[in-house]
């Protein structure tokens, strides 16, 4: 089973550091090449460079009140969400569909509903095990 992952191209998990400006400050971000590839895919959908995408993600996250002490981890989660949302059909595979044109509020509402249903189900299962 693990050979599917272990046998992959090792350059996918090599670290790559890129320098950029976030909120006017020079910084660098270190990620595995796999994540840089996913970020490039996301950026290209909206006709942005990766640097422009990261600047937008950073600014919009601050606007939402998020603490971005670990920006690299945030970016990895963004990549994972992008791929998972594609698998779920929430983000079309058609790369001509921009990310900004997708109904983010609708997707987030469906995710909240799904999480709420899961909590109810877990509570019911937990209660039945205690009885």
Concise summary:
The protein is α+β, with helices and mostly antiparallel strands and 131 residues long.
Sequence-ordered SSE layout with sheet pairings:
Layout: H1 3-6, E1 15-22, E2 25-32, H2 33-45, H3 50-63, H4 71-87, H5 104-130
Antiparallel strand pairs: 1-2
Helix pairs in contact: 2-4
Q: Please, could you describe this protein's structure?
A:
There is one protein chain. Helices cover 57% and strands 12% of the residues. It has 5 helices and 2 strands; from the N terminus they run H-E-E-H-H-H-H. It starts with a helix and ends with a helix. The mean pLDDT is 92.
Q: SS-based structural class?
A: alpha+beta
Order of helices and strands: HEEHHHH
- Total strand count, please? 2
Q: Order the strands across the largest sheet as they lie in space.
A: 1-2
Main pleated-sheet profile: 2 strands, antiparallel
Radius of gyration: 18 Å
Instruction: List the total number of helices.
Output: 5
Quaternary status of these chains?
single chain
Ends distance:
39 Å
Global shape: globular
Given as residue ranges, the uncertain stretches (5+ residues, pLDDT < 50) are none
How much of the sequence lies in strands comes to 5-15%
Task: Round the mean pLDDT to the nearest integer and report it.
Answer: 92
Helix percent reads 55-70%
């Amino acid at each position: 089973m693990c050979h599917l992952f272990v046998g992959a191209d090792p350059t996918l998990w090599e670290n790559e550091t890129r320098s950029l400006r976030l909120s006017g400050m020079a910084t660098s971000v270190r990620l595995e090449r796999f994540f840089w590839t996913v970020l490039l895919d996301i950026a290209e959908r909206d006709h942005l460079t990766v640097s422009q995408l990261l600047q937008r993600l950073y600014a919009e996250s601050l606007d939402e009140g998020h603490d971005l002490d670990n920006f690299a981890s945030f970016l990895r989660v963004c990549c994972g969400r992008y791929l998972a949302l594609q698998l779920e059909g929430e983000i079309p595979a058609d790369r001509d569909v921009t990310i900004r044109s997708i109904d983010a509020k609708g997707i987030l509402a469906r995710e909240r509903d799904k999480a709420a249903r899961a909590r109810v189900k877990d509570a019911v299962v937990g209660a039945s095990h205690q009885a």
